[in-house]
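Two quick folds needed for the group meeting slides. Do the first one here.
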Amino acid sequence: MSSAPSPNFITFKFSGTKPTIRDSKVTDPWGQTVLTISSTKKESTLHNMQGQTFAVVEWKHSLPHVLYGGTEVKSKDFLPLERKSMIRGMTHAGQTYGWKGASDGMSVGLYHPSDPQNRLAYWHNEDHVIFVEVSRQACETPGLLEMCLMAVFMMNCGSQLEEHGSGGGPNMWLVGAISALINAA
């Protein structure tokens, strides 16, 4: 099931994903920790490579709230889901990107709308371990790597990111991708 990453991508790995991703470290291929997530029942704090807090996710609300870049937003606004296309949006430095599940249900890729054929990053789950493959281009864009890793955390944290009740569930493409992985194991 494992496929070799492209040389144009750098592989990052979440530890601590069993049973939850809420307390984990993300390491690069050289074993350096690039992101640390520590959690309580009320919040998760995300620390960058230098140990500085760059985001906090509060779980005490009906929907998680994200404190990032000096603002606080609901998770449904931080990673909004366009139900018709099943693309989850992400905005970084004024640029909007989209996370979309692969047609085979095995991964979720990040694309820029101006170049929808060029995958900038993607994540997949192998044997309950989350891997994030990030293009060198995305790694070289200031802050985009942290934003990608944070988005992957949010999509895998086990909490609803938007209100229930409309259109077959907010994370149906995510559920499909994970189901395919579990059934293939």
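Then this one, please, same format:
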Amino acid sequence: MFDDFAQPGAPGTPTFADIGWRTYEPGRDAASLAAVFRAAVNELAASHYDAPQRAAWSTSADNLSEFDARLARGVTLIADYAGAPVAFAQLFPVDHVEMLYVAPGWTRRGLASALIARLEALAREAEASTLDTDASALARPVFERAGFSRVAEERVRRGSVSLPRFHLCKPLRAVSFSG
């Protein structure tokens, strides 16, 4: 789901340089991003979340029109390869990373880090003083390498299932605490 380091693959394997970047197109991208989301949750999060937790989490993409509406708010950026999305992230509102998912097979190529950097730049342009997120146990290290610090560990309910997550924050502007 989340990646961190750009690593070279075997000859002929697509690399970071082969990735195209674009914004979300409502009505057009929802189904393909729902597929990336479900695959990331069900396959990549298995090391941190059990099957009932992953099933509850992945249901948030079941209603495609609601998922489309959720992706259409704020700014959703997509990394694609050969016209197919391989990662996406959302900034909503201007100071919160709402979503960050990388397709299995595309992890550890720098996509998540690049998406975080792009969203951070947008937050800075909007003059946000901080950038925060509610990250999964899998995503937490990626955000921490990007300069985020843990504020709190939380539990969120999806139906009858409880999922752990981490509220993380990164200051974007220097703050003076002297009078």
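Slide caption for protein two: The radius of gyration is 16 Å.
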